[in-house]
Design a protein that fits this description.
With 280 residues, this protein is α+β, with helices and mostly antiparallel strands. It has one domain. It has eight helices and eleven strands. The strands form three sheets. Strands 1-5-6-7-3 form a five-stranded mixed β-sheet. A hairpin with a 7-residue loop joins β6 (195-199) and β7 (207-211). The longest helix has 19 residues, at 146-164. It is globular. The two termini are 35 Å apart. Residues 65-225 form the RES domain. InterPro entries: RES_dom. This is RES domain-containing protein.
Length: 280
Amino acid sequence: MHGNRFFNESAKTFLDWLFEGLDKHSASSDEHGVVRELTAENAPSIYRARTCMSQGTVKEIAADPARNLAAPPKEIAGEGRMNPAGVPAFYGAFERKTCVAELRPPVGGTVVSGKFKLNRAVRVLDFERFENADLGPEPSFFDPKYFSKIARREFLRYIHNIITVPVLPGSERQYLTTQVIAGYLANHCKPRIDGVIFKSVQNKSGSNIVLFSHVACPAKSVIWELNGVHGINGAKSSDSPCIQYVEGSLIHHEIQRVAYRHVGISLPEGQEEVALDYEW
């Protein structure tokens, strides 16, 4: 089945432990839960953008932005941080400038962005809240489950970090961990999770959202034949995409300047092996 990756029992047991009691957690006593229900009425606008390598691509998007800015069909869907190849997902942001920045376009490049809105309710896991969730009182060192509880808190922070960190072109296999987590949330969580929210590393005040394939992509009718009888199992209305393009929202961006932040470490010379204090 497309979108449902094989899980061995060890992996599922670990993820069951990590995400246990999702609906019970909140970031603080006066916060909403880490699982948020976004509806057509309460959800903020969602923005999505594409880098355009030619004016032909710009014209193609402008001709049908609802189709050409949406999640790609599974036949051409590449790997992403929350989806394997062939299983499309909708990547967006709650701010237009964030969705443009997340593409990391070069100076002189062109980006086209548009606004989308939800047309029905979805359940999303907010990693920004979950990382700081109240998972109960700080465990006592003498608690037999002390190390397990501490490890859970730290691993949640680690997961949020690896979701946000970009992977260099050609190294997409590094997305495997986050792809497995997305597959678990979409297919093994009860009740099902429809997407995730996570912080942007390109815009510190911005947030990204990913909507999984089962809510973001249109379901197709299936033609069947049994003992000479033919029929069509049509897609239900509830199988239509949960998100739609807002007409008149298309913006053409010309990238004029890019800001960089970097970490510099003195590099010893004349040595074949060098130990660095940070990960590439």
